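Schema walkthrough. Field components (list of strings):
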Amino acid sequence: MSDKIAVIGDIDTVTGFRLVGVSECATPKSPNETRELLLSFFRDPNMGLIIITEPLAKEVEDTVVELSQSPVPVILLISDRTGSTGTYEAILKELIRRAVGIEINI
Amino acid sequence: MSKILPGTKTTRMELLALKNRMRLANRGHDLLREKRDSLIMEFFNTIAEIKDAREKVDNSLTAAFSALTQAKMIMGPARVIEFAYASKFEADLKISTRSMMGVRVPVLSVEQRSSELPYSLSDSSTKFDVMGEKFKEALNAIVRLAEIESTVKRLALEIERTKRRVSALETVIIPRLDATTVRFVKLALEEREREDFVRLKMVRDWIIAEEE
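Field assembly_structure (string):
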């Protein structure tokens, strides 16, 4: 069984991953579009991994946190060309806090 | 004070059965507590791994983006995008699961295939090849991070579930069995014994009175 990878990000990120064979790519222009894309990728039963860049994830943080609760597909935040913004750590911390009940410094 | 288990009969059989249930509950409680503790240990180990994997992803992405910029400078942005979309690379994600302390955690691997010439050799620059390599590395690092992260998530879910079971046993089931139900059955049995004793004494008195 093979699953799909999806990338949501700016044009550079998408270009790079498109080159190495990621088939589902999208470059949303507004937070609403990002949310819709995220949901539609999430509902795809063959989706295994959704990669989203941090600046875009920041705009729809609540949706990302909510969808991250389910184990599959995995939603992963990556930094874009400007470098990491710390959104990834914030979201992971929130997830851990919900599960274990304590704050953990990563 | 917790309630007596509904439908408890005050018999010796029931008392024995209750004591068996007590033992079972206690053993389950110990086991679950051990499971919770080792899950938490595993959880912290995995969290430490996340940090390394995250650094690797960041480094490989930085390298990939700088290669992308170089490729753009030599070939022009439009051509790079055009070539990227026309490339014949294929990436397949494979998800299998393995069991870690009874928790099914995913194992992700990515398989990258390409035909011998994924894009036109004569129209692309070597910088473009470098960029492809770098992004491949980045994708591998990302998939590894995704695996660890989803392991952490599942472990967290399992810890939550185990914690809830442990505290349910600790605060509801065991007190209810031990402090109330067993006590209730014992008291009822003792009361009946005393009644029997009194009854016997009364009968004895009647018989003695009749004989006189």
